[in-house]
Amino acid sequence: MTLGQLNQGTRLLGTWGGDTVPDRDLPRYCSLYRYGRLHLEPLISQAYPLADVNVALDDLEAGRAVRPLLDLGSV
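RESULT FIELD:
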């Protein structure tokens, strides 16, 4: 996209968290996951113990991990 395109009616929009309403949506997501209708496993490329947070960030930046998961249970 060029600056000229922005001047022709194109808009850039951003969000922080999308349109999620946590009190409404998180219980729904949990229910969908519990009953096998929401598959989260494909979103996780690799799990890292919390002590390896810097390794996870390095892998993310280098493209070796798409969505690293920090395992807080390994503290």
